[in-house]
Design the sequence.
């Protein structure tokens, strides 16, 4: 029985090792593309917090355009994560995106914090980006370094 459990454990770990990057890339694609297309279709629950951020920063008259652009950026990021060679392009886009979408935690705290260290549902929605950032870093770390031509 112990031997069988060890064999299954080793096989499962080997399977995870073999497919971890594919699973990570597809997971990032699903989240980014899904959340992005909701913004493009004006069906995102993030609308009110995004609207408050735009009003506070660049002006409410720009909200509709910027929200769609953000959605398209998210769709693009998701698609690019499916292509291993695109990591050097997509990773900086992820960093820019994360700065933008995490800004409400600081700039519109009434939407994101119920009290210190207690995020609202919108705040939790934003804070989950820590996981996306960690997964994006893991995927980027798997890239092969560029080789110089000699």
Sequence:
């Amino acid at each position: 029985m112990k031997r069988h459990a060890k064999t299954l454990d080793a096989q499962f770990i080997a399977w995870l090792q073999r497919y971890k990057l594919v699973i990570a890339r597809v997971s990032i694609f699903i989240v980014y593309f899904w959340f992005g297309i909701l913004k493009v279709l004006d069906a995102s629950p993030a609308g009110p917090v995004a609207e408050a951020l735009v009003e506070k920063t660049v002006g409410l008259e720009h909200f509709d355009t910027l929200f769609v652009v953000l959605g398209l950026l998210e769709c693009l990021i998701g698609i690019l994560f499916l292509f291993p060679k695109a990591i050097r392009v997509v990773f900086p886009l992820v960093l820019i995106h994360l700065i933008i979408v995490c800004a409400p935690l600081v700039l519109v705290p009434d939407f994101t914090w119920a009290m210190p260290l207690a995020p609202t549902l919108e705040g939790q929605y934003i804070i989950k980006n820590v996981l996306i950032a960690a997964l994006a870093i893991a995927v980027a770390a798997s890239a092969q370094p560029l080789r110089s031509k000699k």
In short: Strands lie at 113-115, 118-119. Helices lie at 2-40, 47-57, 63-81, 87-102, 104-107, 109-112, 121-127, 129-141.
